[in-house]
Specification:
Strand content: 15-25%
CATH superfamily of the largest domain: Isopropylmalate Dehydrogenase
CATH architecture of the largest domain: 3-Layer(aba) Sandwich
Order of helices and strands: HEHEHEEHEHHEEHHEHEHHEHEEH
Number of strands: 12
Shape: globular
C-alpha cells in the first residue's frame, strides 16, 4: 500500500466504556476482525489483557503512540491485534460489579476520545456502553453520551438517531422523563432538530433530498384534538415551518402506523417525539446491528445500541454485533468526510 493510500485510511478511536461491563471484551472481539481503518482503543491495557486471558482471546495488545503520531500515515487494522492508548483504572474492576471509584476513569476515556477527534488525531469516535447510575453516584451529573459530547463541544442541538439498515429514527427529545416530553417540545426545537437531521442525511448518508416522517405525540396523532393538543399547537405548525425552510417533512403522523412497511418506504428517516416511541422499533428490527449516531456534533460519533450488560460481563456470551455495526458505520462516515 502506498503512503498516499495509507493517508486515506480513517483512524477511529474506540472507548472501552464501563470497565465492569461488556465493553472491554467487545473491544477485544472487534480487534479479532479485519477493519478498513486504523483502530485505537482507549482502555486500561492491563484490564484488556486480563479479560483476554479470562476469555481465551488471542489478541496482541500494542501501545498507541499518541497524539505525536497523529500525522504519520495510518495503517489498516491487523486482525488479532489492538492498538491501545493506556488510561489507568482508579480501582480494580470486577466483571459485573461497577465501582463509583472508576467513574472519573470512564469520563476520561470520553474526554480523550473527543479531544483527539476535535484536534484531527482521530477521524471518528465509537463508544462502548457506560453505566450512567454509577457516574451519577460518583457525584457527576450525567444523562448520556449525547448530552455529554454536546456540552463538551458547545453543540446547541445534538440529535440522537438510531439506525438499523435503512431504518433511521431520530429523537426530538432524548433522556427526559415521559412526563416532561410535552413541555420540551416547541416549534423551534422541532424545526431545528429536523434541520440537523436533514443536513446529516445529506452529508453523511448521501441522501440528496431526504424525506422525513414526523410522529405525533399522542395516540392517533391526537385524534383531531380529542386525545391531546400538542399536535395542533406545536407539531403541525413545526412541520409547516420545516416545509417553509425547504425540508421535505410530513406529519404529524400516528406513531403506531408510521412504521408499517408500506408507509415507512416513503421516508428516509422518522422523527419520533420521545425515546421509547421510536427506539423500540429499531431495536426490534435489528438489535444485533442497530447503531446509535449523534448528529449535529463537529465530529463523527457512533455507539452500540445497548447498555453495559453487567450480567454478561466476563462470560464471553455478549454479542458484539451492535458495536461492530457502530464501528463499520463510523468508518464509512469518516471516510466520506475525508
Amino acid at each position: 500500500m502506498t503512503i498516499a493510500a495509507r493517508a486515506l485510511i480513517p483512524r477511529v478511536v474506540l472507548t472501552s466504556g464501563e470497565p465492569a461491563g461488556v465493553g472491554p471484551e467487545l473491544c477485544l472481539a472487534l480487534a479479532a476482525r479485519d477493519w478498513p481503518c486504523e483502530l485505537v482503543c482507549l482502555a486500561d491495557a492491563a484490564l484488556l489483557a486480563e479479560r483476554a486471558r479470562q476469555l481465551g482471546l488471542a489478541v496482541a495488545l500494542r501501545p498507541y503512540g499518541g497524539a505525536g503520531d497523529a500525522d504519520r500515515p495510518r495503517t489498516r487494522h491487523e486482525p488479532r491485534t489492538l492498538l491501545v492508548a493506556h488510561l489507568p483504572l482508579a480501582a480494580p474492576s470486577v466483571p459485573g460489579q461497577p465501582a463509583a471509584a472508576n467513574a472519573a476513569y470512564v469520563l476520561s476515556l470520553l474526554d480523550r476520545a473527543l479531544d483527539g477527534a476535535l484536534s484531527g488525531e482521530f477521524d471518528a469516535v465509537v463508544t462502548a456502553p457506560v453505566h450512567k447510575a454509577i457516574i451519577n453516584l460518583a457525584g457527576v451529573p450525567f444523562t448520556g453520551h449525547t448530552e455529554y459530547f454536546a456540552a463538551r463541544t458547545h453543540t446547541a442541538r445534538p440529535v440522537m438517531m438510531l439506525t438499523a439498515g435503512k431504518l433511521r429514527v431520530a429523537l426530538a427529545t432524548t433522556h427526559v422523563p415521559l412526563a416532561a416530553v410535552s413541555g420540551a417540545l416547541s416549534v423551534a426545537s422541532l424545526t431545528d432538530t429536523a434541520a440537523v437531521l436533514t443536513r446529516a442525511l445529506e452529508r453523511d448518508f448521501g441522501i440528496a433530498a431526504p424525506r422525513l416522517a414526523v410522529c405525533g405525540l399522542n395516540p392517533h396523532a391526537g385524534e383531531g384534538g380529542l386525545l391531546g393538543g400538542e399536535e395542533r399547537a406545536v407539531i403541525a405548525p413545526a412541520v409547516e415551518a420545516m416545509r417553509r425552510a425547504g425540508i421535505d417533512a410530513a406529519g404529524p403522523l400516528p406513531a403506531d402506523t408510521v412504521f408499517v412497511p408500506h408507509v415507512l418506504e416513503r421516508f428516509d428517516a422518522v422523527l419520533a417525539m420521545y425515546h421509547d416511541q421510536g427506539l423500540p422499533v429499531v431495536k426490534h428490527a435489528g438489535f444485533d446491528c442497530a447503531v446509535n449516531v449523534t448528529l449535529g456534533l463537529p465530529v463523527v460519533r457512533t455507539s452500540a445500541d445497548h447498555g453495559t450488560a453487567l450480567d454478561l460481563a466476563g462470560t464471553g456470551r455478549a454479542d458484539s454485533g451492535s458495536l461492530a455495526a457502530a464501528l463499520a458505520l463510523a468508518t464509512e462516515l469518516a471516510a466520506r468526510r475525508r
